[in-house]
């Protein structure tokens, strides 16, 4: 576990963008320590290259390069409208990039190779690659006509082809993990927002994705319910198996959970680095400005 | 004239207690009722299938499918059921395709009500929040699975009241097929009226009642279905 984590930092610095390598002394030490033998693991699980996205005249992402490494936990922060959600939606194939490429585990996501040329992916290709990605939404989007157990077991049955027994077993394990195993028969409408979001997390986890996207998983919750969801996510993050991209406005949560913080503004990555560095010694004016606004909003607690 | 008189008097000649006029009318209407119910069930089934075909077709990502279903739905909704019925029954044979009256009736009814039904299906599918489809995509469901396991079960609940209405509309619409010689309930009533004109009020009162007796259980059945499909909703 500890070794894995150190590797991760090593990858970041050797393979990440230039800004990442402008990091503190400690991290440079980590580079020196990164074992060479694990070189094959240093390939990113997700690789955005020059990814742009426009909605009409509105260019939301501007040639973004971004790598996510296996097991790495990245928190994405930034002002409203800066393109964070769009980044995640492109990877989940809910939105199509205007230009650029995204690779997942070495395979092109939005393109497919035909006779050495990249052509736009079809539904079949998306289906093959998308299986590595899972997503938790701001507004949960549980299936209201299915009870909790069914919500979590339907995709393992239909998509992974597990038997009903196997799928329900897996679903129960996941529901147990998020503390919802006493509500198997309940319907989403009868649960609190925090409970719904925990079920939604179990529903995504049960598919065993290599990359999990969380898009402001607590923004739609009443303040008193935020904690229970963040705790569940922290627990999953601590297992360190999946790469995680956490879009969040909860700064203290980002600091606690993430290996790396990525600051977005106006469709670009402005600054990124380790949490300590980002929160205590932000380099760019824009990040300083952004974090200052946050303290004023009372999130310093 | 002759028939009318004989029937009329027969009613009083039958015995010491005159046989009620209704007892005369009822069996013949009942015969028609079976035809009406058959028409109703067969066109409802076919119309229901066509509703989904048209409704999902209009939402297809494939352009030609969307155009073709759009054209058929709009054309069938935009023209009169009676004229469609006449076209199938009188015009089509001259083009070389001769349909039995029953088939022409079922076809016209199911196409026409199917067109309305497809708008119900389309509207209900579109009323399901986009987040549902997105959640299904995030679970890597295929488009077919998204539709079948996530969208349609929810949309179906929304469709039920409208389908209930259409079902009753369809029942009433079946009366038109009497005009292409199908001996349904209305046909029988009209036939009797020409025979025993004096009893016209009784004939048509009973006819109304019988339509209601068939139609009201349909209303009750849809309500029951709505309740059954509202699991999980507050
Ligand atoms: N489907 C869409 N159609 C048109 N414009 C869109 C669409 N989705 C997003 N946008 C626009 O793209 C921009 C970036 O949106 P995005 O949701 O990615 O921002 P965000 O960083 O997630 O913001 P927030 O913190 O408010 O969630 C916004 O200006 C938004 O209005
Ligand atoms: Mg967002």
Automatic annotation (TrEMBL), chain B:
Its main location: membrane. It comes from the Bacteria. Residues 33-222 form the ABC transmembrane type-1 domain. The keyword Transmembrane applies. GO terms for biological process: amino acid transport. Keywords: Amino-acid transport, Cell membrane, Membrane, Transmembrane, Transmembrane helix, Transport. GO terms for cellular component: ATP-binding cassette (ABC) transporter complex. Gene3D superfamilies: MetI-like (1.10.3720.10). GO terms for molecular function: transmembrane transporter activity. It is a multi-pass membrane protein. The chain crosses the membrane at residues 7-26, 32-55, 95-116, 163-183, 203-225. It is found in: Cell membrane. Belongs to the binding-protein-dependent transport system permease family. This is Ectoine/hydroxyectoine ABC transporter permease subunit EhuC. It comes from Marinithermofilum abyssi. The lineage of its organism: Bacteria, Bacillati, Bacillota, Bacilli, Bacillales.
């Amino acid at each position: 576990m500890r070794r894995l984590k150190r590797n991760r930092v090593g990858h970041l610095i050797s393979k990440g963008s230039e800004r990442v390598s402008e990091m503190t002394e400690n991290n440079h030490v980590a580079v020196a320590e990164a074992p060479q033998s694990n070189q094959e693991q240093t390939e990113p699980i997700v690789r955005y290259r020059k990814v742009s996205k426009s909605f009409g005249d509105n260019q939301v992402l501007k040639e973004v390069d971004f790598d996510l490494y296996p097991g790495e936990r990245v928190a994405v922060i930034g002002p409203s409208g800066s393109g964070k959600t769009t980044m995640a939606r492109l990877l989940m194939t809910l939105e199509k990039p205007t230009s650029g490429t995204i690779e997942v585990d070495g395979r092109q996501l939005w393109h497919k190779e035909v006779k050495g040329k990249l052509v736009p992916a079809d539904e079949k290709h998306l289906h093959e690659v998308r299986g590595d990605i899972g997503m938790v939404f701001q507004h949960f989007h549980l299936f209201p006509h299915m009870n909790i157990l069914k919500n979590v077991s339907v995709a393992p049955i239909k998509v992974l082809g597990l038997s009903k027994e196997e799928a329900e077993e897996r679903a129960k394990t996941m529901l147990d993990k998020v503390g919802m195993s006493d509500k198997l028969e309940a319907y989403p409408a009868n649960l609190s927002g925090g409970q719904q979001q925990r079920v939604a997390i179990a529903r995504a986890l049960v598919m065993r994705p290599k990359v999990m996207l969380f898009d402001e998983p607590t923004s739609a919750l009443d303040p008193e319910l935020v904690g229970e969801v963040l705790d569940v996510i922290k627990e999953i993050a601590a297992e360190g198996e999946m790469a995680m991209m956490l879009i969040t406005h909860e700064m203290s949560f980002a600091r606690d959970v993430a290996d790396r913080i990525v600051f977005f503004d106006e469709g670009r990555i402005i600054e990124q680095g380790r949490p300590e560095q980002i929160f205590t010694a932000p380099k760019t004016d824009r990040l300083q400005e952004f974090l200052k606004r946050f303290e004023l909003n009372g999130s310093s607690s | 004239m002759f028939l009318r008189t004989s029937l009329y008097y027969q009613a009083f000649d039958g015995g010491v207690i005159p046989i009620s006029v209704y007892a005369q009318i009822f069996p013949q209407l009942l015969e028609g009722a079976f035809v009406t119910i058959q028409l109703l069930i067969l066109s409802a089934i076919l119309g229901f299938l066509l509703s989904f075909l048209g409704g999902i077709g209009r939402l297809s990502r494939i352009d030609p499918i969307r155009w073709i279903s759009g054209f058929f739905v709009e054309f069938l909704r935009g023209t009169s059921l009676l004229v469609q019925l006449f076209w199938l029954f009188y015009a089509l044979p001259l083009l070389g395709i001769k349909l039995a009256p029953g088939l022409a009736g079922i076809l016209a009814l199911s196409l026409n009500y199917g067109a309305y039904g497809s708008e119900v299906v389309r509207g209900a599918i579109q009323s399901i929040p986009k987040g549902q489809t997105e959640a299904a995509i995030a679970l890597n469901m295929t488009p077919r699975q998204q539709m079948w396991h996530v969208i349609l079960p929810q949309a179906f609940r929304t469709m039920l009241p409208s389908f209930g209405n259409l079902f009753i509309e369809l029942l009433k619409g079946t009366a038109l097929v009497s005009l292409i010689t199908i001996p349904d309930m209305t046909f029988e009533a009209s036939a009797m009226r020409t025979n025993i004109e004096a009893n016209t009020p009784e004939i048509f009162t009973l006819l109304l009642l019988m339509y209601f007796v068939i139609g009201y259980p349909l209303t009750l059945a849809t309500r029951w279905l709505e309740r059954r499909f509202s699991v999980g909703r507050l």
